[in-house]
């Protein structure tokens, strides 16, 4: 094997190790959305509104929601509010940073379908 090929292999191997380490440094918080059912808003039922809302939740090390926000609307304000309210009340599994429980963000999609 020539010196340049060995150097390229070592550089690639080192970059893979560093990238893998950085990736494993944080595990986001999670929630079982099936256990956190939101009640379909009555007005949305009458208007036959459906859609998916994408949300983000900042979760404390204890599993409680510290902050929440809508990242992508379902297109219907009532559906977005109901999903955000229901999931904010849920107990999350906290995330980890560098192997320790920590405050992290969780992304959750909630689908409203009739």
UniProtKB/TrEMBL annotation:
SUPFAM superfamilies: TolA/TonB C-terminal domain. It is a single-pass membrane protein. It holds the Pfam family TonB_C. Residues 1-24 form the signal peptide. One of its GO terms (biological process) is transmembrane transport. Its main location: membrane. It comes from the Bacteria. PROSITE patterns: TONB_CTD. InterPro entries: TonB/TolA_C, TonB_C. One of its GO terms (cellular component) is membrane. Residues 25-114 form the TonB C-terminal domain. It is found in: Membrane. Keywords: Membrane, Signal, Transmembrane, Transmembrane helix. This is Energy transducer TonB.
């Amino acid at each position: 094997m020539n010196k340049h090929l060995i150097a390229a292999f070592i550089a690639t191997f080192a970059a893979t190790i560093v990238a893998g380490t950085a990736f494993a440094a944080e595990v986001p918080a999670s929630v079982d959305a099936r256990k956190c059912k939101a009640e379909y808003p009555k007005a949305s039922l009458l208007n036959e509104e459906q859609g998916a809302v994408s949300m983000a939740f900042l979760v404390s090390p204890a599993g409680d929601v510290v902050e929440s926000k809508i990242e992508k609307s379902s297109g219907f304000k009532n559906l977005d509010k109901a999903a955000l309210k229901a999931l904010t009340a849920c107990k999350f599994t906290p995330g980890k940073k560098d192997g320790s429980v920590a405050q992290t963000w969780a992304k959750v999609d909630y689908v409203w379908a009739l």
